[in-house]
Amino acid sequence: MSIIQINNLTKTYQDTEVPVHAVNGVDLSFEEGEFAAIVGPSGCGKTTLMNMIGGLEQPTSGNVVVDDSVMSELSSNELIDFRLRNIGFVFQAYNLIPVLTAKENVEFIMQLQNWNKREMEERTLALLESVGLGEKVNNKPNQLSGGQQQRVAVARALASKPKFILADEPTANLDSIATNQLLEIMEKLNREENMTFIFATHDQRVMDKAKRVITLDDGKVISDVLKTP
Amino acid sequence: MVLTKIAWRSIWRSKLRSAVVIFAIASGLLGGLFSSAWMNGMAMQRVKNTFTYEIGHIQLHHPEFSENMDIKKTLLNIQEKISGIEKSEGVLGVTERIRITGMAATANKNLGVNVVGVAPETEKKVFELYQKIDSASGNFFENDRKNAIVISRALATELNAKLKSKIVLTFQDFNGEITGAAFKVVGIFKTDNNPWDKMHVFVKNKDLRRIIELPENQSHEIVVLLDDYERALLKAQEFQVKYPDTKVEDWAEISPYLSLMSGYMDTMMGLFMAIILGALGFGIVNTMLMVVLERTRELGMLMAIGMTKRRVFVMIMLETIFLALIGAVLGEILSMLFINHFGKVGIDLSSMAEGMESVGYSAITYPMLEGYRYVQITVLVIITGILASVYPALKALKLHPAEAIRSI
Predict the structure, then answer these.
(1) Nearest CA to CA, how far is B293 from chain A (Å)?
(2) What is the number of alpha carbons within 13 Å of residue A154 lying toward its C-beta?
(3) Are B13 and A85 a contacting pair at CB < 8 A?
(4) Which of B125, B170, B204, B228 has the smallest set of CB atoms within 10 Å of its CB?
């Protein structure tokens, strides 16, 4: 069943001398439980496409439909709430809140959703355990390695039980050991909990693990390969 | 709750920068509060001195006496009035005075003075002038000698008089005839109000009554001391109803300068604090703009993952208020310590004593600030913090999450 439907999506930046078509007529759909990578050279439109899927940027034309909600039709506040409840984000630079501990960073999303304290604590500890950081719950980001921080970011992205996770270059700042650990955790979550992951990456290791690889060039989908197990 | 936690901890991210802002707020408040307390202390001392040495809290006169101090405009049945007032609640002391103007002369010089005829025992219950005579300068009519006079150090210098010197007072008697008598100096006082000192001499009212032939049971003035000067207006109104043949005035009416000064101090302090808080406000705006700029990516991330603009706004606002509050509390603690210390030991400006006393102020001032002022300042600092946070918070709201996340 398709959870994300992208229809003729276009993003054109007009603020340059020559209009730039960052995303140019993309049609895609993602099923629940996918582990997909959007790949392509720098400037091909990966991040812009991810931003539009995540409701962080509005398309110039076309639309993104998530579970019957047309994102371009949502108001700014509705979009924020929609992101909070439906989408988990993992960013290249971890982007944890530096003054909060690993546990508090994960709880943060749930606090925004007004979870009750006991449930929130249980889920936080379970999530941090699942990403292998059960021992580091009270560490602040600056007391964690890059790989550990990114694992906290994954736990945070999962905290609100989103429909899918968008991970923009999640391994770009990690060494190969941390990358492998992170990918294993994500694969496991995908396999065991049917969590949908969509990556934007040019990391070959991520591409190798992905079950579907969508290649963009000049804002257009030039290939969409579903790997057979 | 989580916003409070983030805001509070964020203050300590850049310890040096926060410390600088906190120090700026604290020292600004210390400067403002201490100077206000100093001015307030000076003014309050001036007010207290005026009550204690010069006018008391309430005065009763013949309705026309104050116009030109006519010797014939006396209060009648003075003893009856005094005992009536003494019984009134809140009255600490009542005394009567004979007031005339005259000339004081020694062999060297003569000067115009206000001659005050006092009843020494009751006078001491209302005025503390007797405490302004040091042991080497005589006393306030402690001996029963006839025609004794107490003058000020300033007048003594002008007249070239000293203890036991003879001074001749000349004035009009009750029948309009010029009369006079020689008095012997038995005491020399000194208050902080030089001009007032020069203008007043004190004699016993029984001597003065005899010389000016003022009938018994009449005087020009009744002075009342209350347990609280702020009750003066109400008590004056009460006495006015009770003694309609007199004119009853409270201290504010007798000396409008005092009430003016009290209002002036409030205005001055308000102005002072407004300038300081305004300057601090701009400092806070500057700091918080830097905070927003430095945390662009983080704020973008927070908005991306689902933090509403309202919450971002509140978070920046809380951070600003916390910063301002820490500075305010620190500033107030320091101010309290300084004000309490100097309130006890005083600030000695003896080198400027002559100048200060020539305008009626004491050379040693004791800073003082009422407790409610600290609360007032805390509230004002919070308001300043809120106002100062609006612009940086609005800047934060204008961030576009997708762009903010990409920023370095």
Answers:
(1) 16
(2) 33
(3) no
(4) B228
Tell me, yes or no, whether B237 lies in a domain: yes
Interface touch A95/B405, C-beta < 8 Å? yes
Residues B272, B241 share a domain: no
- Containing structural domain, residue B325: 2-50+259-406
B34's enclosing H/E stretch is helix B15-49
User: Does residue B342 share a domain with residue B229?
Assistant: no
Shared domain for B312 and B400, answered yes or no, is yes
CA distance A138 to A159: 17
B46 and B67 in one domain?
A: no
CATH number given to A2-226: 3.40.50.300
Beta carbons of A199 and A30 less than 8 angstroms apart:
no
Tell me the whole-structure pTM to 2 decimals. 0.74
Domains identified in chain B, total number? 2
Cβ contacts below 8 Å, chain A against chain B, sum to: 63
B175 Cβ partners below 8 Å, 6+ apart?
B213
Q: Does B156 reside within a domain? A: yes
Interface predicted TM-score (ipTM) of this complex, two decimals: 0.87
**Tell me: the pLDDT tens digits for B39-73?**
888 888 888 888 889 999 999 999 999 888 889 99
Give dist(CA B300, CA B407) in Å, integer. Answer: 9
Question: What is d(CA A138, CA B389) in angstroms, rounded to the nearest whole number?
Answer: 31
